[in-house]
Amino acid sequence: TTIELQDLVQLGKIGSGNSGTVLKTLHVPDSRIIAKKSIPVENKPLVKSQLMRELSIMRSVKPHDNIVGFFGAFYTASTSNEIVILMEYMDCGSLDKIMSTYKAFVARGIQSSTENWFSEPVLSKISFAVLNGLLYLYRGYKIIHRDIKPSNVLINSKGCVKICDFGVSKKLINSIADTFVGTSTYMSPERIQGSVYSTKGDVWSLGLMIIELVTGEFPLGGHSDTPEGILDLLQRIVNEPPPRLPPQLPNGLQYSREMFDFVNRCCVKEERERSSLQELLCHDFIEKGRSQGDREFRHWCKRIKKWLKEDKMLRREEQERAKLVK
Ligand code: ATP
Ligand code: MG
């Protein structure tokens, strides 16, 4: 099905990142909700032709269980200096949103921090989905994702985990400095050093992401958004020992030897020694999760959906109250 921009009605903002804004929209002809991402771009012929080439690669990717559905990309006079990408709407949002919602519940005292929100079976399912999606993109299209991080892993209440935001290179959209501002960097050491890199760069990012989901903190420490702060972080990634899962969580919970080993195999600084996508897909941590079936995971996704709704309501109440106090 092809979707025309004029058939879309804007419903609200989902979020925005460094490069663009994502809106929830209604596709009127079939009452389907879809996500519409707009990314401002420079109006230069060279940028434009490269973009068209990249968008055509995105169009060629066939649907897959672990890749967010793609419904079209536009870059025309009518979209004036922005690319518009239409994609499947994922109603549980991204992992960073889920993480911040959980933190907000803990802060409100509604949720106790002794429950591990990203439990091991959940992390195993998520890891499988990311690896499987990455392998599909690489095997079928020689696409390396390059931007695996919590905000680019999306979940829906049917229990699907999908990756998004591959294909359009960051360098066309922003200058390097802009790209780093406000984000932690999940880039692998070899990529920072400008060596040739492979899908193993995404394996590194997956490792960091799991540590972040477990601990609630980006594992390589904070950085200021000044050029010095960013350089310092990049320098640390290259020169310091790789991050590790802490032996124990603050709430006393422990995880299995398999999970510990899995993360250790992702967070290897030397690209050659780091495990590949295929190797990790056969890892015990993944196998264990797959053998447990999907029922519990689907249940977890449904719970998230409920939480997101509740969080929205609570936020609205909190805002109203703040207004009254004023
Ligand atoms: P960056 O610009 O650094 O990549 P980002 O990934 O957070 O950061 P966007 O890709 O613009 O920025 O996405 C903004 C937010 O919109 C995401 O954090 C995610 O929560 C949400 N989002 C993106 N795509 C979808 C989608 N298809 N369905 C539901 N929510 C989405
Ligand atoms: Mg994104």
UniProtKB/TrEMBL annotation:
The Protein kinase domain, residue ranges: 8-286
An example Gene Ontology molecular-function term = protein serine/threonine kinase activity
Keywords of this entry: ATP-binding, Kinase, Nucleotide-binding, Phosphoprotein, Serine/threonine-protein kinase, Transferase
Q: What is its EC number?
A: 2.7.12.2
Similarity comment text for this entry: Belongs to the protein kinase superfamily. STE Ser/Thr protein kinase family. MAP kinase kinase subfamily.
Q: Which organism is this protein's natural source?
A: Lachancea quebecensis
Domain of life the protein comes from: Eukaryota
Which reaction equation describes what this protein catalyses? L-seryl-[protein] + ATP = O-phospho-L-seryl-[protein] + ADP + H(+); L-threonyl-[protein] + ATP = O-phospho-L-threonyl-[protein] + ADP + H(+); L-tyrosyl-[protein] + ATP = O-phospho-L-tyrosyl-[protein] + ADP + H(+)
Residues that bind ATP: K37
Q: According to the UniProt entry, where is the signal peptide?
A: none
**Protein name according to UniProt:** mitogen-activated protein kinase kinase
Swiss-Prot/TrEMBL GO biological process terms: pheromone response MAPK cascade
Q: Give the main EC class.
A: transferase
Can the keyword Cytoplasm be found in this entry's annotation? no
Task: Give GO cellular component annotations, separated by semicolons.
Answer: cell tip
